[in-house]
Amino acid sequence: MVRGDVKDQQLAAYRQLIVFWKDSVQEGFLPFAYYTGQAAKLEKSEKSLTFAAQLFLQSLRGQDNPALKGWMAANAKELFEKALELNPANDSTKIGLGASIMFGSTAGSPEELMQGIQRILEVARRDSTNMYAQFMLGLGGIESGQFDKAIERLTTVVQHQPANIEAILLLAEAHLQKGNKADAVKWYEAAKKLIGNPDMIKEIDQRIKSLE
Fold first, then answer.
1. Cβ neighbour number for residue 181 with a 10 Å cutoff
2. CA-closest candidate to residue 33, choices 4, 63, 66
């Protein structure tokens, strides 16, 4: 059996597993993301690699389990690095790599957090109009407790993307952490105007009421 046949068979097996886990996203998200990443590494396609990396990155922020968080961050980082090998000039991939390092950092490792932020800063300094970089730096400011910087970055994002609900809610959160209750309420109210989900609006109303 030639090497190419082994690779094709392995890829076919991964694709079957992807389909199997895709339909049970609640229980099967991590296996789905893992096998998508394994297939992408075999395909060696920039698009496939970044898609798989983003699957891990998007779930990384809400992950509380340190071991799982570290594993997800390592997978995202490896996939973004492989995508960058194929296209070293892709700024979105550089930001994704920085974000993977940033969100994967542990509470006891501020150097790791700053290493991730520095990678994103490299893009933002060269292209201040890159809102993906500005948004991630805003998140980095919140993660590192630098709320003034977070407010500055997220305000820039909202000015350019007034319908970016996540940026608006994070801006409210950053102001809240700074003790600026009036500003926090202002941004929570702005978010409500863009949200169509009654449950989310109710949750924000409760948050606003607790600040009064």
1. 14
2. 63
CATH of the domain at 66: 1.25.40
Residues 116, 153, single domain; the answer is no
Contact 145, 110 (CB under 8 A): no
Lowest mean pLDDT among 59-63, 88-92, 144-148: 59-63
What is the extent of the structural domain holding 56? 1-124
Q: Give 196's pLDDT tier (boundaries 50, 70, 90).
A: confident
Output the CA angle 73-92-29, nearest 5 degrees: 40
Cα dihedral across residues 166, 171, 176, 182: positive or negative: negative
Which ranges constitute the DSSP H helices of 44-164?
46-60, 66-86, 91-104, 110-126, 131-143, 147-160
Chain Cα centroid distance, residue 106: 16
- My answer on whether 17 and 90 are in the same domain is yes
Q: Specify whether 17 is located in the same domain as 94.
A: yes
Same-domain check for residues 3 and 95 = yes
Whether 79 and 17 share a structural domain: yes
Contact 136, 98 (CB under 8 A): yes
- Inform me whether the pLDDT recorded for 54 exceeds 70: yes
